[in-house]
Amino acid sequence: MNRFKLIYEIALQLLKARWKQTLVAAIGVTFSITMFITLLGFMNGLNTLLDGLILNRTPHIKLYNEIKPSAIQPIEKDSTLNNTHHFIESIKPFAGKPEIRNASAIMNYLKKDVRVNGVAPKISAQVFYNVGAVDLTGAINGIDVEAESKLFFFQDYVVKGNYVDLKNIPNSIILGKGAADKMLAKIGDVIQVTTAKGDRVQLKVVGYFQSGLADIDKVQSYTSISTAQKILGKPNSYITDIQIKLKVIEQAPKVAKEYARLFEIDAEDIQTANAQFETGSSVRTTISYAVGITLLIVAGFGIYNILNMMIYEKMDSIAILKATGFSGKDVKYIFVSIALSIGFFGGLAGLGFGFLASAGIDQIPFNTSALPTVETYPVDYNPKYYVIGIIFSLITTYFAGLFPAKKASKIDPVIIIRGK
Amino acid sequence: MSNKILEVKNIVKQFHDPITISVLKDISFSIDKGEFVSITGKSGCGKSTLLYVLSTMDTDYEGELIIDGQSMAKRKEAELAKVRNEKIGFVFQFHYLLNEFSVLRNVMLPALKMNKFNKDEIEAKAIEKLKILEIEKEALKRPNQLSGGQKQRVAIARALINDPIIILGDEPTGNLDKKNSQNVFDIFKELSQSFGQSLLIVTHDADFADRTDRIIEMEDGKIISLGK
Ligand SMILES: Nc1ncnc2c1ncn2[C@@H]1O[C@H](COP(=O)(O)OP(=O)(O)OP(=O)(O)O)[C@@H](O)[C@H]1O
Ligand SMILES: [Mg+2]
């Protein structure tokens, strides 16, 4: 018989002889792993949800021209004045958000870049919504409806009306839910907006938009690119932003720098724009791990106690095993396997219960006006947590068993046999 | 010379707690193959201590122990465990069986540990040994369901399972009544005569000792007579 099979058989018999205590120890492990799986699943479900709020709708890289004074003033371009000192004062930036020149050429170039997943153009414009005598500040985003839906899940956030109407109906607008509520604008109504230049434009409401961030919904609205160009009185080459989604989000800072140089443009990557989000996620994850590990350590002490007791009770058996030819190592392995069995089976049950608890949380209704697409609490069933859970339970129980097992391996059979 | 299966040369053993006392003082003797030897002596003269040294469980001594032609000096714990497993059968005054296992399994364990035969072979062998000791009917019971005499016979069967070159016994009949002692003695005698089994048995029982091949007498940590 294989050495380890024999050792395991002996371990199992010792376990059976003390099955009540063993069960209590295993339940300790089960409980901690259940908590660990549930917590991590729930926390990471939340993380993904909250990150999704931002990540889904934020381009990995945004190309635009910042409103700022030119770094090179016209006078500096005159080579005849190279050796003179220029006195220029009160430099002011060019009015309005500058367009991206050669936007369509840049977009064609980007679409061919293998790192790029997709490109969507955008026009952002400041406007006022006219409500009777009151003007509310607002911002209109002119978007390419198809690209926006494909890359930024635009359709998920249109809570009423059909998002495609934006493209099909000329001079149409999808209002932010908050803005629509303030204006008492129903679908089919015609509203009036005033542009920064003072032009008045009439737009037909075809839907409501709800992002989940109330501040945004009070201000933002969407029109098609061509409508936005019409509102602003610009030609149909006019684009203010190019939004890029990459295949690998981690490449964003590097690629952004490259594009900034290449197109002589401002390029903002998502990591720089949303640094605070990472922090929130990692804090939640750390808390889940800390709770899970703490519980496991407590369970580990339980196993330690039970093994110590078992060894104390089984002194005679250990002595006889040694007298009949089992080495100290064999004895050590016997007790380590007892601990590992408790860890393995307790942990496995924990994974099962953790999955059930996660599934339970997944059923609890979670309706919030801020998150129109979410109906129940979010849960992440990533197999990674299950693998980590079982590994953790094995490691903790291994160490909990190791010290008693070492003690058992050092028992001197002569002392036990003499002591009878 | 090649007949010697166990040989001790100038064994000295001291205890240091609370004060240093010599329990074994320059012990030398040897046992030939097939011999049935008993050790006698007053209580406290060092018989058990000597047996623990011979069993390789106690390694804290001076002098030389040779089992089956091989010196046990400077051997690792695991190597000594292997020697105990394969070459020595031990029978104690108290039976020391594992109550978690059946009688049959108890007998099989040292053979399973040795891992030289498959499980079926070992089981057949264990039943054969139990038959020699006329206890095969109890094979599937737990040890704690047996009488003292029965337990001791199971322990002897276990000592025999790996066909050891020698059986060491420390007062194996000490805890048994006259009838059971007689029974165990008969078994040892039978093993010695029919199977050529070598035995070294510590005993207080003069009748028992008288009927062995040879009596080694000890007094105060020394051997005063090597018998015939
Ligand atoms: N661990 C120990 N520490 C100190 N002295 C010990 C220890 N073990 C045994 N002794 C002493 O060694 C001596 C021999 O003991 P041992 O058990 O070998 O005697 P024995 O001949 O087997 O006696 P008995 O016939 O009563 O079993 C005794 O005097 C005992 O007190
Ligand atoms: Mg003794």
Task: Explain what the structure shows.
- The complex is a heterodimer of chains A (420) and B (228).
- Chain A is α+β, with helices and mostly antiparallel strands.
- Chain A is 55% helix and 17% strand.
- Chain A has two domains: 2-55 and 277-419, no CATH class; 61-68 and 95-269, no CATH class.
- Chain A has helices at 3-17, 19-55, 103-112, 145-152, 154-157, 165-168, 177-183, 214-217, 225-232, 252-263, 270-273, 275-313, 315-323, 328-363, 383-409, 413-419, and strands at residues 61-64, 116-131, 134-143, 158-161, 172-176, 190-195, 200-209, 220-224, 241-246, 266-269.
- Chain A has a six-stranded mixed β-barrel with strand order 2-3-8-5-7-6, surrounded by four helices.
- In chain A, helix 12 packs parallel to helix 15 (383-409).
- Chain A is elongated.
- Chain B has helices at 47-54, 77-87, 103-114, 119-132, 148-160, 178-195, 206-210, and strands at residues 4-15, 21-32, 36-41, 62-67, 70-71, 88-91, 166-170, 198-202, 214-219, 222-225.
- At the A-B interface, helix 1, helix 13, helix 14 and helix 16 of A face helix 2 and helix 3 of B.
- The structure holds adenosine-5'-triphosphate and magnesium ion.
- Residues 15, 17, 23, 41, 43-49 of chain B line the site of adenosine-5'-triphosphate.
